[in-house]
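Predict structure. Chain length: 42.
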Amino acid sequence: MEQGYYRAEDLITARIALADVVEKGFETLLNDKSQVKIIVEP
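Prediction complete.
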């Protein structure tokens, strides 16, 4: 990433609210292997 081959923004596959971390965060990561990184926003 430091060399510019990958942009961090391209690795984020979803953004979710803190209140949805279990339902939309953990469950999604466990069930959908195409997910790379889910950002939790307050």
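Summary: Residues 15 and 39 are 5 Å apart (CA to CA).
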